[in-house]
Design a protein that fits this description.
By secondary structure, the protein is of the alpha+beta class. Strands 1-7-6-5-4-3-2 form a 7-stranded mixed beta sheet, with helices on both faces. Strands 8-9 form a two-stranded antiparallel sheet. It has a two-stranded antiparallel ribbon with strand order 10-11. The relative contact order is 0.21.
Length: 206
């Protein structure tokens, strides 16, 4: 069966988000254009890495080519939830990132996880063999926006225990520094994107 490559050249949105309760979240990356929606499953660490690499790539493009690149302010402009229902096309195993000088676009490619070792030459390639992929072309503004939202999603987690630095759960915490005695929970008020708890910044361990 030939591979499916989902290409978005001018997406209306390209964002990361979560579904689930604090401590038990599922992370997604979603591309949207008009009525077309493609979602893929990712790990929290993959979201963090992708955001960091996008920011670094944009800084390098500005330095090397003098391109008009917006600064990394950390401000999140898109606070809307993911489009539902969410039906993941695949779980991401490999991520690719590049710069299309002709289109002046950041190119993000997310490839499905495979049991076999992946030849890196398949990344950003249209050949028939290989895993399914989501390929998105982003303006510099859109790329910075993705990175800002992704960084906020990852970093705004549950409060850390002042003794062991592990995240505090809403129902308490078995702290190794207190020989396993349960600490009382602190008041948790996660920052919600949409106010209904379906897509919110507020977990430090998925």
């Amino acid at each position: 069966m030939p591979r499916a490559i989902h290409v978005f050249r001018s997406p209306d949105r390209f964002v990361s988000g979560t579904v689930g309760e604090p401590g038990d979240r599922t992370f997604y990356v979603q591309a949207v254009h008009a009525s077309r929606v493609v979602s893929v499953l990712v790990e929290k660490q993959q979201v963090a890495i992708l955001a960091d690499r996008i920011d670094a790539l944009l800084d390098e493009i500005e330095r090397r080519f003098g391109a008009d690149v917006p600064p990394a302010t950390g401000e999140v402009d898109d606070l809307r939830p993911l489009v539902t229902p969410i039906e993941a096309e695949f779980r991401v195993g490999t991520m690719g990132l590049g710069w299309d000088a002709n289109e002046k676009s950041v190119v993000v490619e997310l490839l499905a996880a495979t049991e076999e070792a992946l030849d890196e030459s398949i990344v950003l390639d249209d050949r028939d063999d290989g895993p399914d992929a989501l390929r998105v072309f982003l303006t510099a503004d859109a790329a910075r926006g993705f990175a800002a939202r992704a960084e906020a999603l990852v970093s705004a987690g549950r409060p850390a225990c002042p003794l062991c630095a592990e995240p505090l759960d809403p129902d308490g915490h078995l702290c190794i520094r207190t020989n396993g005695y349960k600490r009382e929970p602190v008041s948790l008020e996660p920052y919600e994107l949409d106010g209904d708890g379906d897509d919110e910044f507020g977990d430090d361990s998925d």
